[in-house]
Design a protein that fits this description.
The protein is of the alpha/beta class. The chain is built from six helices and 16 strands. It has a seven-stranded parallel β-sheet, covered by helices on one side.
C-alpha cells in the first residue's frame, strides 16, 4: 500500500446526493466505527469524522493516515478532507440504551459480544482538530453527553485546543463526568510543552480525569513533573506502515515510565499497549509476533495493563481488558 504523500493525492468528496444533514452517507455505509476493536485499552472506536493533519513527530508513519488513504483515499493534510460519518451518531445511543435497560451483550456479525464500555473517540482523526466541519463537534458533544453509561476517551495531539472546543454547556464539567481526555506526547519536548495544558483541563475546567499517551514512545521521558496530576499513562512502540520504517523502542524507556508511575505520591495506573515492530533491549533487537501487542510474549515485568482508577477501584486480576471491567453501576460488563 503506497503511503499518501501530503499534497499529491486527495480523496474525492462525496457527491451532493450522498450528503444529507451534514453526514456523508457514502462513508457511513463503510464500517467507519467499530463495535469491537483491536486497540487493547478500548472496547470500541467511534469516529465522528475521518481525516486529520500531521502536527509532530508522532504523526510520522501514522496508522490512521495509512488506513484512511488505503480504504477511502482520504489524505491527512492541511485543508484535507474531513469526512463525517453516520454510525458514530447512532451506535453510542444504542449502546447506552441497552446498558440502561440492564443488558450486557449485543450481537455483532452473528456473534455475541460484550456491550462496549470504554470508547475511543476519533481513532481516525483528532477530536480537537480545528478543521472539522462547522457544527459537527457540537453534535458529537451532544452524543457524548447523552451517553453517560459509556466511558469516553478523547485522545488528542492538540491539548491546547481543548479549552476553546468544550461544549457550551460544559460549565464545571459536572455533566461530563464520564469523559476523560488523553494527551499524546511522544518525546520530552512535547511533554514539557503540554504538561501545564493537561493540568489546566483538570484543575481549571473540571475534567474528571486526564491521561498521557506516549505512543509511539521515541525516547526516554521524565514524567515525574506531571505525576500524579494525570490519572493514566500509556506507552507503546511504533508499528510499521508502508513507506515508513518503525522507529526503535527501547524497553528501558517504558520500564522507566512504569517505575515513575509506581513511585508517584499517588501511584498512577500504567498501560503497556504494544512493543511495536522495532523493540530492543540492552542494545539488541527483539522480535514479537505481529506488532507485539500480545502480553503473553512480553517480559513478565511489562505485562501491565491497568485502567484509570476513576469510577471504581480495580478488584479483578490483570489484564484489565474490556471483558474484565466493572461498569458504572458496579456490575460485570
Amino acid at each position: 500500500m503506497p503511503r499518501p504523500l501530503n499534497g499529491l493525492v486527495r480523496g474525492k468528496a462525496a457527491p451532493a446526493s450522498d450528503r444529507r444533514d451534514g453526514v456523508d452517507h457514502r462513508s457511513a455505509r463503510s464500517s467507519l466505527m467499530a463495535a469491537t476493536t483491536g486497540i487493547s485499552y478500548a472496547c470500541a472506536t467511534v469516529n465522528f469524522v475521518i481525516g486529520c493533519t500531521p502536527v509532530g513527530p508522532g504523526c510520522d508513519g501514522c496508522y490512521a493516515a495509512a488506513f484512511a488513504f488505503q480504504k477511502w483515499r482520504i489524505v491527512f493534510e492541511v485543508g484535507g478532507e474531513r469526512r463525517p460519518t453516520k454510525v458514530a451518531f447512532q451506535d453510542p445511543l444504542r449502546w447506552h440504551k441497552a446498558r440502561m435497560a440492564g443488558r450486557s451483550t449485543m450481537v455483532v456479525d452473528g456473534k455475541t459480544v460484550l456491550l462496549p464500555l470504554w470508547i475511543f473517540a476519533c481513532s481516525l482523526s483528532d477530536f480537537f482538530d480545528n478543521e472539522w466541519p462547522d457544527g459537527l463537534r457540537n453534535r458529537a458533544w451532544a452524543i457524548i453527553r447523552n451517553t453517560p453509561s459509556l466511558r469516553w476517551m478523547l485522545f488528542t495531539k492538540r491539548i491546547g485546543n481543548a479549552p476553546k472546543m468544550l461544549p457550551a454547556d460544559w460549565g464545571d464539567g459536572s455533566d461530563y463526568q464520564h469523559v476523560g481526555i488523553v494527551a499524546t506526547t511522544v518525546n520530552q519536548f512535547e511533554l514539557d510543552r503540554d504538561a501545564d495544558k493537561i493540568r489546566r483541563m483538570k484543575f481549571d475546567f473540571g475534567l474528571k480525569w486526564a491521561g498521557l499517551s506516549i505512543e509511539p514512545q521515541l525516547d526516554m521521558i521524565d514524567i515525574n513533573g506531571i505525576l500524579p496530576d494525570v490519572d493514566w499513562v500509556i506507552s507503546g512502540g511504533e508499528s510499521k506502515q508502508s513507506g515508513h520504517l518503525p522507529r526503535p523502542y527501547d524497553l528501558a524507556w517504558t520500564r522507566s515510565l512504569l517505575r515513575q508511575c509506581r513511585s508517584a505520591s499517588r501511584p498512577v495506573p500504567f498501560w503497556q499497549k504494544q512493543m511495536g515492530d522495532a523493540p530492543f533491549e540492552f542494545g539488541k533487537p527483539l522480535s514479537f509476533p505481529g506488532k507485539g501487542d500480545d502480553p503473553e510474549y512480553w517480559p513478565l515485568d511489562l505485562r501491565v495493563q491497568e485502567r484509570p482508577r476513576i469510577y471504581d477501584e480495580q478488584t479483578l486480576a490483570p489484564p484489565y481488558r474490556c471483558a474484565g471491567t466493572t461498569d458504572l453501576f458496579g456490575e460485570s460488563a
